[in-house]
Design the sequence.
């Protein structure tokens, strides 16, 4: 368990690991067309500027400067730390690995629970039950009017959030969220990754002490606004699939998926083939 005395603070308030600081300068992002004109690129692009699937990544700010003055920008996210946190399922507050439980990992989302059982798309990383969830419920303004605590059994990588460009380099006014495999991804400057939460079960922080109780097995969750992360969580688009897998929350290394022989396949187009978004089976189109 993380020692709360070692968490960085600003005027007595904990600064989450994914929060950028004003003292760290924004890195330049000179967006241009690539040589073939088929996607956007950086004029000074390096091998570190793209994701494994070729999507251009926002650079965000430089090294964290908590000791160099400035203030934490609570309303923003550090793009690189957010992407790392969701890729490795790290706690958004302390940056460590949340302890595994038989219920899954804990997420905190702002707003009261609803009864409609839907999947959740979120840019918010998980959180350690103690002490990070306790501190969040005490200090996070987004949770002041209520929150939903979720045990999540199957978090899955879904896509990206960012700014969409045209071939004329005109930019979208608002951030968009695109799933992996979307044909518009070559024109996206992706600042954050999006994760799909499946197997969500509402729980309680018992007695206000930050100890999540047993799941309420009769209720699942709908989309919510994030805890400390900024952004929105639209419903999952049918017909798209989240190809990469995140670490399994029970420590097995990969997500558990249905056996191909027993799966009720949900086929989607992917890379010249059709692929089942449930079990991963493929077939030629």
Sequence:
């Amino acid at each position: 368990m993380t020692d709360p005395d070692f968490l960085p603070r600003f005027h007595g308030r904990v600064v989450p690991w994914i929060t950028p600081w004003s003292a760290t300068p924004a890195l330049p992002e000179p967006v241009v067309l690539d040589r073939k004109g088929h996607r956007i690129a950086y004029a000074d692009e390096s091998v570190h500027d793209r994701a494994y699937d070729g999507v251009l990544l926002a650079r965000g700010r430089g090294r964290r400067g908590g000791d160099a003055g400035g203030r934490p920008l609570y309303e923003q996210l550090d793009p690189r730390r957010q992407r790392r946190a969701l890729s490795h399922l790290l706690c958004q507050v302390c940056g460590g690995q949340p302890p595994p439980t038989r219920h899954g990992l804990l997420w905190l989302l702002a707003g009261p629970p609803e009864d409609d059982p839907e999947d959740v798309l979120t840019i918010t990383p998980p959180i350690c039950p103690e002490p990070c969830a306790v501190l969040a419920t005490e200090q996070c303004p987004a949770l002041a009017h209520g929150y939903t605590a979720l045990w999540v059994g199957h978090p899955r990588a879904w896509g990206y959030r960012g700014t969409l460009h045209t071939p004329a380099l005109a930019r979208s006014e608002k951030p968009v969220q695109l799933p992996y495999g979307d044909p518009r991804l070559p024109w996206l400057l992706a600042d954050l990754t999006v994760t799909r939460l499946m197997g969500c079960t509402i729980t309680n922080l018992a007695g206000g002490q930050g100890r999540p109780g047993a799941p309420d097995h009769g209720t699942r969750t709908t989309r919510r606004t994030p805890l400390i992360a900024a952004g929105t969580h639209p419903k999952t688009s049918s017909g798209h699939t989240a190809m990469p897998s995140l670490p399994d929350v029970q420590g097995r290394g990969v997500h558990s998926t249905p056996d191909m022989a027993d799966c009720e396949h949900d086929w989607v187009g992917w890379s010249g083939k059709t692929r089942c978004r449930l079990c991963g089976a493929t077939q030629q189109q």
